[in-house]
Amino acid sequence: MSEKVIMLGNEAIARGAYEAGVKVSAAYPGTPSTEISENLVKYKDSLYCEWSPNEKVATEVAIGASVSGVRAMSCMKHVGFNVAADPTYTVSYMGVNGGLVIVVADDPGLYSSQNEQDTRMVARAAQLPVIEPSDSAEAKEFIKIAFDLSEQFDRPFVYRTTTRLAHSQGLVELNERKEIEDKPYEKNIRKNVMMPGNAKLRHVEIEKRNQELAEAANTLPINRVEMNDTKIGVITSGIPYQYVKEALPEASVLKLGLVNPLPRKLIEDFASKVDTLYVVEELDPVIETQVKSWGIKAIGKEIFTVQGEYSANMIRQAILKEELDISKPAEAPGRPPILCPGCPHRGVYYVLNKLKIHAAGDIGCYTLGAVAPLSVVDTTICMGASISSLHGMEKAKGKEYIKNWVAVIGDSTFLHTGVNSLMNMMYNKATGTVIILDNSTTGMTGHQDHAATGKTLQGDPTYAIDIPALCRAIGVKNVVEVNARDIQAVEKAVKEEIAKDEVSVIITKTPCVLLDKSKKPLYQTHTDKCKKCGMCMKPGCPAMTKNADGTISIDDTMCTGCGLCASLCKFDAIELVKEGDR
Amino acid sequence: MAAKNIMIVGVGGQGTLLTSRILGGLAIAGGYDVKLSEVHGMAQRGGSVVTFVRYGDKVAEPIVEEGQADVIIAFERLEALRYAHFLKKDGALIINDWRIDPMPVVIGAAQYPENIIETLGEEHRVYTVNATEEAKKIGNPRVFNLIVLGVAAQHMDFTKEQWYEVIEKTVPPKTIEINKKAFDVGYHL
Q1: What are the beta bridge partners of residue B9?
Q2: Owning domain of residue A54
Q3: Model-level pTM greater than 0.95?
Q4: Domain total of chain A
Q5: Smallest Cβ distance to B67: which of A170, A325, A336?
Q6: Do A94 and A193 fall into the same domain?
Q7: Contact indicator for A257, A237 with CB cutoff of 8 Å
Q8: Using CB atoms, which residue from B37, B100, B108 is nearest to A167?
Q9: Are both A305 and A171 inside the same structural domain?
Q10: What pLDDT digit, counting tens, does each position of B167-188 carry?
Q11: Which CATH class is domain B4-187?
């Protein structure tokens, strides 16, 4: 038997893609999908993979590779699938040459997302087949099956995971890579040029292919019946399958690996053999609605929620009506995520808070500037929306109205979609100040490189986009670069730029503190000099604690020596006690 | 063997992922089926984090349900309080006697609960260690999590040699000695 190793779901997906003979993969980081590409790069001698600036670009890269005849994939989080929607809906009409798989990770429970959308709904709207694994072992095998089916039925496949699968580890058996011969490229404009006359015919064709796949789904081994006691029958898929097995070990289960299109005959047959049929699926009633539309009696969202994650206990309570003897959680103050000690965004937000400025926010670590005590960010919608929504406000209310507003956006997010919004400001004669919080990385997702860091996913040096020059090329005259740690300079820049009746971009460039591997300085407080004024606590640094007597302590295991607190203390009560390398 | 359920709880950035990898490695070395569930992304930025480790003959779900944890390893007092209801009636709760104020406490919007360890001790088997101070004593405050793990190891079914072997395989090569030393401190407390 081959070696068994423990793998994160995302690591198993990467391994499966490698074994499936994938030659090209493109992605934009997004929790919970990021580790797929980070693991795929381990196989860089056998395949090409990249960080693209956004999910639309990534998916188009994968489509091009598929058209040329190799197995290709793109990876993203659920909201990234919206960005990739444009190529996705149309490649559905085209079909594939080399197998094509779009990996999309949903986030039930919103661990790290701005919504809880269900990718199966989006895929159904695009008429795309969806495959869904339920643990790391399946994560690896199913991606290989997805590529095989993609080529067999000439359909791009959506491979859906959720946070609980992506970020759980389980045992996986390793296999060799299957070298797939490239498919020959043949020019075929009826299949690949989606102008109306061709697309009209392709629409007919994909309906046919989907019906063939739906028929085949009745006998695909990844749709599996586990017949047991017939009092309770459950249709389920993905991670909820594991909860069902835990809670209802005696029940009969129809475990779906292909969740779109559904195997109607298999479902009808299973339903006829059980007394009561349940559908257990997280988020939207995608399976349930279809099953019921066929006149099959089933229970689903009548007893289950459309929000958050499920659990075995939830199933025991909902289906078995068990009263569980669980003590109530203790009352404990919440611990929301916060900017790290030494985060370069903290000083910038401190200044904006001091100047009573509102920020149209964006997606990244700096979203955390919305919460107290910084409380600067007023809106967070999606990648790139900070700049365009500020523009909308200005057009609605006029330039005076936004004199106490800015847009804040990170460097990676700016390159993702923010740059389009900046073009729009210039084109449509806007005014307003955009702050690019440039920490030289994609921070929240765990430090991935991007087009302006000068490094590829493989870690090789490459051309780094010059963000200030890019802004100037778009036409922005006022491009100001400041050190995020110099709060006087930040304050001066913000005041000056906001006063102008033009578009300004302030770039606060300081690398993410977690990337700084140099020896850190350390600050400590002199409680005898401390006047208990609370100034140093205003930026909300988690390394600082207020003692019972009102003086302040600094946790020496957390302090990174950024010195922001010391710069705010008027009484020299915070002192550098250990020099660092910076 | 019915699945053993372990939880590691703490504050994002405290190194819960390293600890869970060591526990996962142990379970594999013991020949068990094993599943782990972790938190990545936003909560890692100073939020409350929980990692589940389950091992046994066959493991289905990767999470530990409320009321079913055999051992909870808490890297911080408030997090011990937050997750204590996941413990089985006879489960063991290992607490690093350390306080990190969450932002609502820092800004005065909430109080850090008093007497957490005493309160939890009334209902559960509680074992405490000030691992952060102990780690400073051996010269590296960052290895506190291995000290806590050493205390937890006293309540689990693996030999010291098994622990050593997995620690050697899991931590960065340069830090093997200090991590084993830290584990010993906890193991002999």
Answers
A1: B50, B74
A2: 4-217
A3: yes
A4: 4
A5: A325
A6: yes
A7: yes
A8: B37
A9: no
A10: 999 999 999 999 999 999 999 9
A11: alpha beta
